[in-house]
Amino acid sequence: MTHHTTKHTAAAGTPAAPARRWAALAVCCLAAMLLGIDNSVLNYAVPSLLREMGPSGTEILWISDIYGFAMGGLLVVMGNLGDRLGRKRMILLGAAAFGVASLFTAYAPTPEALIAGRALLGVAGAAMVPSTLSVVRHAFTDPKERTTAIGISSGIGAASFALGPVVGGLLLDHFWWGSVFLINVPLMAVVLVAGVLVLPESRNPRPGRLDWIGVPLSVVGVLGAIYAIKTGFRDGADHAPVWIAAAVGTAALLLFARRQVRVEEPLIDLRLFRNPAFSGAVGSNLVMIFASSTLSLAFSLYFQVVRGWSPFTAGLALLPGPLAAAFAAPLATALIPRLGRARVVALGLVLLAVSTAALGRLSAPGTSYAELLAPLVVNGAGIILIVSVTNDTILASAPRERTGAAAAVSETAMEMGGSLGIAILGSLLGAVYRDALVLPAGLPAGAAGPARESVGGAVEAAARVPGADGAALAAAAKDAFCHSIQVTTVVGAVLLALGAVAALYTLRGVPAEIPDSEAEEDMRSLSAPGR
Question: Do 12 and 520 form a contact (C-beta atoms < 8 A)?
């Protein structure tokens, strides 16, 4: 296996003027924000969709899931294409495709057309995500500025997921369901026009041949794994499609990994994982997203079902955490020289663990929102301390010509880690709820089944049961759900604390500043005989 190094040539990406590189960061942040919003905004349009389009339950699931399936399955391929064709070009192509797909999706006449539109949005998103991170990496060559810029970009990306409910709630209060997609069109036009003017171009000047056999193996492997995880834990692992997807996905990933160590120009250079900086950062991200992914889901249900707030109000209630993440990004840059990367990541995981446990403890129905506010802010600050350092470490640890592929590996791991977290911890949340639920005596038979299924089903069933029995059912379901949040958040907090210990070990030798040349030296040493 050969490995090409690059100097700071025009092809590899020259340092941009200060004003232009910060403008490029703004464009990349806007693109990342729109992608994050689109990932979560649809959940709040489902009731309108059901009324106006009448999709089946299976179609609703595909409408919700296909965006993540398409994006997750294509990240590795699109990251490599960005390295080869140019990262700016991929962002512009992705932005144009995302705008067109948004217009198509907003006016989709049938559920099938809506599924197709969401799939196209996922493809366009996959084209943009790795390249936005890579453009920021190439625009900022000073290590301190680079860390700050990647931290800001990561913070905006984190905040955008919580903006989905807020944006969706505002639009759905005044317009039809398609407005949540139509809003993308003018904003992506801004990304497209501004991107042409300010984004610097960079690419691998000697990319070699694309591994055309590895491409389908990568797509099938990741898609199969994500589908099996999501569908298996939602519908049960005894369904034949789940086992088939798991078997095909595992086989494809094994063949893909075997091929990557043999081809001259791999889609994923597996030697990167022998670099402690890269593998430790990816591992810390996995722990973070796995343990914290269920928190947003649990508290969205808590605010809407237990406390009876509207989706828009629930979105506003969750917003302080992501906003804290967006504004606390420079804190990571300031702490790295004083504490080192390992301790900053460990500190972020500890803050996340403490705030997660605190939110669980405070999740009683009568808790005031003011008591929840501080843990929400600490939670967001903890997330940004982690992702600011880990994303910068991942990109800085990879050779400059392969940063798109490195970013794609990180994003794919996050996608799969989030799916696993929601599947496993989400299942725990449901199991503890069902075990803790004590149904009132004399409850009508038709109310017991929905009540055991979910807290939302219980509250809806309680509304149909007259008198004290209905009130008792609603109270029992809310108490059981709050108990399930407390148990699940304790498990998540323990995992995060263990992740903090692991981060101290895996990232202990990573320097506070990672210059561009260091990744090249590391990769050459890993290629040396005997390694």
Answer: no
